[in-house]
Amino acid sequence: MKALVSVKRVVDYNVRIQVKPDGSGVATDGVKMSMNPFDEIAMEEAVRLKEKGVVSEIVAVTVGSAKCVETLRTALAFGADRAIHVVEEGEVQPLVAAKALVAVCGKENPDLFLLGKQAIDDDANQTGQMVAALLDRPQATFASKVEIAGTKATVTREVDAGLQTIEIDLPAVITVDLRLNEPRYLKLPDIMKAKRKPVENTTLGDLGVQAAGGLKIVKTASPAARSKGVMVKTVDELIAGLKNKGLL
Amino acid sequence: MVGQHAEGKLDNGVAKVVCAAKAVGGDIEVVVFATAGAAVAGQAAAIEGVTKALHVDRAENEHPLAAVLAPQVVALAKAGGYTHVLAAGNTFGKDLLPRVAALLDVQQVSDVMAVHSTTSFDRPIYAGNAIVTVEAMAAPCVVATVRLASFQAAGTAGAAAPVEAVSTDAQLPAHTRFVSLAAQKSERPDLQSATRVVSGGRALGSAEKFKEVMEPLADKLGAAIGASRAAVDSGYCASDMQVGQTGKIIAPELYVACGISGAIQHLAGIKDARTIVAINKDPDAPIFEVADFGLVGDLFQLVPEFAQKA
Fold first, then answer.
1. In this predicted complex, what is the ipTM?
2. Within chain A, which residues score under 70 in pLDDT?
3. Is B104 an 8 Å CB contact of chain A?
4. What 3-state class would DSSP assign to B134?
5. Residue B26 pLDDT more than 80?
6. CATH number assigned to the domain comprising residue B72
7. H or E stretch including A69?
8. Which long-range contacts (CB under 8 A, 24 or more apart) does A180-189 make?
9. B102 and B16, same structural domain?
10. What share of chain A is helix, strand, coil (3-state, %, to 5)?
11. CA-nearest residue of chain A to B181?
């Protein structure tokens, strides 16, 4: 069984982001970048499935600028066998990313397509669902448990009402949630080994995907700040304050 | 608008999406997919601002599966000449609408928090630490999920809108099958729509303590119970109680955070709360930067005292 895992390069989870004063976006120059944490979970799941003997080959893919090759190297250090880089220097919105990934699926024919449920930069939460739609294949979003048996997968999903379990036929798209697993720490020998693994470059044009269209970003702003409140010393003071605001 | 429902009851979020739809303007039609959806559609028809409620009754619609619903939404959207396709930005809408958008070849707008025009919207990025204003293409239509915490629920209509059964000839796949839903049954208010929420963090220390400390306060305040990611990951409570960027984004009148330090991912989920109370032993915890009332001390002593005196 073959697994394709898509990974995205994003501003690191721990960075406190800054909106540019001119409203043109969020500052990324000189900011630490990492693999989207949800995609790390997807990578980890693929590697665990390979360790169990369910998956025989893992291919990592990304759509983005030349610098995204770093993210592919991280995926290779996790345990991907090879990687595909769809090089695009411009902004890539989910529908365009999905079309590129669908084109890659057309060449690679994976049984499992794994990715994070959302990227922590644009928080769109769309790409996996769009890939599944365009392939006309099942989707299991927000996965917290994945079991593969033959040509079927049973996936537990974290939904607002609780935990929903569905059964899907493979090939399928699975988008992963936080509690699916805890990604491993990468070891130096694996990071070194990753440098020698093959990365194939391609472009949206090669894949027949148009980069145009999508949403026009008009401006980026900081959210309205909450005004700082008061520190109370006792529960009685707290209750008095809440009563004063009509909340108790 | 796609209306979510379960066990014969329309989801509370639908009235909030209607509120967003009213800001867009024009006629508002809500569609529910069910095995027999007339009664649930009737609930949607009673929401102020709804022009018509539709129901598509098919055996395959027994459970909400995106792969099954999407082709039906697409067929309706194409046949009905709708300018906008909307759904709630909860796990239902987030699962379904991107599938619809891709089939309509439209870039979706996720988590609309403000409507400027029929095509211009604000949405949060970076866990709400930045807000972008986007302009969507009007053709063939705008597909968007609505951030429920940003909109008030539309009220009840004086006279209910008409209810109509409709059908589509959409081909539905058999590749995705519902197995089960493990739901937390609770007498408490629903976390997503509760006016009061009390939340516990890792400082509670165990599942037993979480229950022992948080439940009396929730009972006294008539509040829903939430939790930080750390508390959920530590196994103190169920994952559907998680509040934050990747859990539920809520906007209660009163939010009481007990033993929650306030990681930015948690704060992203409570930014729209009217009043935030924080009880934490660490005076430097980031939660105090956003709290309207901060109380430093031992939660095992302070929270029961609060529950008793409130």
1. 0.95
2. none
3. no
4. strand
5. yes
6. 3.40.50.620
7. helix A69-78
8. A180/A41, A180/A44, A180/A45, A180/A143, A180/A144, A180/A145, A180/A146, A181/A41, A181/A44, A181/A45, A181/A48, A182/A44, A183/A37, A183/A40, A183/A41, A183/A43, A183/A44, A183/A78, A184/A44, A184/A47, A184/A78, A186/A74, A186/A77, A186/A78
9. yes
10. 30, 30, 40
11. A164
Q: How far apart are CA B142 and CA B145, in angstroms?
A: 10
CA distances from B218 to A246, B100, B222 (A): 18, 39, 6
Residue B120 sits in the same domain as residue B239: no
Domain assignment present for B208: yes
Query: Is B282's Cβ below 8 Å from some Cβ in A?
Result: no
Which pLDDT tens digit goes with each residue over B59-75? 999 999 999 999 999 99
Query: Rounded to two decimals, what is the model's pTM?
Result: 0.93
Q: Do B179 and A160 touch (CB under 8 A)?
A: no
The answer to whether the CB atoms of B293 and A238 lie below 8 A apart is yes
Structural domain of residue B152, as residue ranges?
Answer: 5-165
Question: How far is A107 from chain B, CA to nearest CA, in Å?
Answer: 20
**In this structure, is residue B173 part of a structural domain?**
no
What's the confidence (pLDDT) of residue B193?
Answer: 83
> Which chain A residues are within 8 Å of B120, Cβ to Cβ?
218
